[in-house]
């Protein structure tokens, strides 16, 4: 069964690259965003057709717990207990050759994930993600990790909003210039979806103070990528949380030039001895 599945996936991908543009209806009539949503949903349904949206000759995997290429993708699907997977993509965005999504998963247990896919010539050639176990309870303000605004607006402000978020991460989280934090928020009007933090700058301050009392540190050292569409911006950063090497994916909604809402997924980066590929957790192309 396992070999049959992988063979089918590979044949689908190879057929896709060999077909002419006139014959390849499946990849020309739907958007890259739709391809990603279909591919993610196939984890739940077992549909093999969306695997044809992956370039079998170029697919690079940055999830360090999955082997590289189409074979690695097939192996992780085969390892799932039958009928156990659930996939509900809540938000999907496009920034040039990148599609990035926020998804509610049951994937070896309930998880919230951000996924990033890079396309070349209509096919997926690279994938990054961050996954976090879904908390059992809402955060102190009653928000979950996935509820909140979904409407994409202000498309003409995409680059401006990306610059705002990059500057916020750099000024506040990397360099610790907390005296500038008021420049990025409209007072205490800030909706927070982190499972441990309440709304507003007051909620953030209280959470950071509580962490400090417990000796837990949160460090951001490098911003690897900032992607956005309109009023939504995703930053991908590296640092340490509680002394552990950590990957931070932070999604921000910007309103009137200020950060108005925040979702995140925080994942510990696996040590080299436990990695199933050598592509690195980040390594975005220039």
From TrEMBL:
Pfam families, sorted: SnoaL_2
Keyword Signal attributed: yes
InterPro entries linked to this entry: NTF2-like_dom_sf, SnoaL-like
Signal peptide region: 1-20
Domain SnoaL-like: 165-262
SUPFAM superfamilies: NTF2-like (SSF54427)
Keywords in alphabetical order: Signal
Protein name: Predicted SnoaL-like aldol condensation-catalyzing enzyme
């Amino acid at each position: 069964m396992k070999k049959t599945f992988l063979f089918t996936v590979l044949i689908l991908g190879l057929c896709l690259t060999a077909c002419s543009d006139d014959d390849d209806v499946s990849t020309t009539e739907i958007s890259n965003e739709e391809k990603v949503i279909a591919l993610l949903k196939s984890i739940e349904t077992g549909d093999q057709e969306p695997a044809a949206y992956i370039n079998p000759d170029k697919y690079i995997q940055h999830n360090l717990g999955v082997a590289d290429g189409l074979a690695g993708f097939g192996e992780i699907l085969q390892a799932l207990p039958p009928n156990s997977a659930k996939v509900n993509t809540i938000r999907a965005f496009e920034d040039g050759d990148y599609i990035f999504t926020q998804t509610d998963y049951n994937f070896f247990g309930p998880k919230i994930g951000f996924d990033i896919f890079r396309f070349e010539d209509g096919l997926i050639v690279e994938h990054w993600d961050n996954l976090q176990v879904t908390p059992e309870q809402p955060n102190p303000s009653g928000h979950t990790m996935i509820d909140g605004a979904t409407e994409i607006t202000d498309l003409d402000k995409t680059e401006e909003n990306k610059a705002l978020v990059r500057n916020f991460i750099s000024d506040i989280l990397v360099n610790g210039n907390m005296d500038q934090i008021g420049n990025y928020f409209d007072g205490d009007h800030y909706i927070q979806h982190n499972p441990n933090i309440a709304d507003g700058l007051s909620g953030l301050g209280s959470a950071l103070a509580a962490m400090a009392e417990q000796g837990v540190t949160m460090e951001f050292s490098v911003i690897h990528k900032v992607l956005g569409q309109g009023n939504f911006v995703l930053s991908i950063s590296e640092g340490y949380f509680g002394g552990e090497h950590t990957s931070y994916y932070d999604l921000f909604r910007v309103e009137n030039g200020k950060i108005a809402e925040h979702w995140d997924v925080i994942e510990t980066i696996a040590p080299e001895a436990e990695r199933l590929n050598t592509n690195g957790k980040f390594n975005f192309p220039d």
